[in-house]
C-alpha cells in the first residue's frame, strides 16, 4: 500500500490548479443587453384641419301648420306619420259661428239688392218725368245719388260676404303640400288660436344642417367649405358643403349660424341632433402608430429611440395628438418627421433604457 499513500497528496493540488485555470479564463462581467423593440419612422401625411360641432337637422320642406281662425277642434282626419297630398284635409275647426255670420251677411245682401232695384226704378221714373218737364233737375240728381249709394252699399256688402266665405274655408285645415304628418299635440275639443301649433308636414327634399360656429373662427368661414356629417359612432354618413353663413352673431351663444345641405333622407330625420365636422383646410402632419402612444393622467406620451454612446436609448416624449387616421394618430406637437418611434414593448420601457431594433 505504499504506492497509494504517495498518490493521494496530488489530488487536491490538481483540483486547485483546475479552479485557478477556470478563473483565469472567465470573461469580465458585462452590463444588461439592449432591449429589442420594433421601431418605425414617423412619416408625414396630408391631414385635414377639422373642427367638430353639434348640429341640428331641419327640413327645407317642413311646414308648421297653424290655424288662421280661432275655435274648437271638432274633427281630426289624419294620424301622426300619415302621408298626405297637397290640399288634403287635416283638421276641422267648428264653423257654426262663422256659418251664421255668412248667412246673416247673405240675407243683408239680399236686402241691399232689393234696395238697389228700388233705387234704379225710382231713378228711371224721375228721369222720364224730367224728360217730360214734370220734375226738376234737383229731383233727378237726388234720384241718381240714391241709386249710386245703393250700388255702393251692395258692392261693399258683396265684398264683405266674399271675405266671410273665404274665412269659412279656413275652418277646415288642409295640407299645404304633399308630405308626412308630424306629431299632433292637439285633441278634439281643444280650443285653438292663430298661434297654436296643430302639427307639421314634412315634404321630401333636402335637409339642412344648422351648425353654430364660435365667433373666433367665423372669419375663416367661406361658402363651399367642406362639411362632413357623422353619426353617433363617428362614421361618415354624407359629405356636404357650406351653403349659408349668417352675417350676424348670436348674442346669447356668441356663435355664427352656418347651414349645409344634406341629401341623406334614409338615415337622417328632421330635428335630429348630429355632429358636423367643418374642414378648414389641409396641411402636412406627422403620424405615429396608435400602439406607440400611451396615456398617463390625461397626457399622451410616446417613446423615441435616440442615438447615444454608439447605440440607441429610449426617450419619453409628451405629445399632443389629433384624430385617428387609419391605424395612426395625427401628432400635433412633440414628434417631427424622421423621428424613430418605438412601437412594441412600450409598457416595459423606462427613460434611458438601451434599445435595439428588432430584425
What's this entry about, in short?
The chain is an alpha+beta fold and about 350 residues long.
Main sheet, how many strands, which sense, barrel? 6 strands, antiparallel, barrel
CATH class type of the largest domain:
Mainly Beta
Q: What is the strand content?
A: 35-45%
- What is the topology, as strand order, of the major beta sheet? 3-12-15-14-13-16
The radius of gyration computed from the alpha-carbon positions, rounded to a whole number of angstroms, is 46 Å
Overall outline: rod-shaped
Mean pLDDT over all positions: 85
What is the CA–CA distance across the termini? 66 Å
Poorly predicted runs of 5 or more residues: 1-31
Category by helix and strand content: alpha+beta
Number of structural domains: 4
The count of strands amounts to: 22
Summarize the amount of helix as a percent range.
25-40%
Number of helices: 4
Topology order in helix (H) and strand (E) letters? HHEEEEEEEHHEEEEEEEEEEEEEEE
Which CATH architecture of the largest domain?
A: Beta Barrel
CATH homologous superfamily of the largest domain, by name? Efflux pump adaptor protein, beta barrel domain
CATH topology type of the largest domain: Elongation Factor Tu (Ef-tu), domain 3
Oligomer: single chain
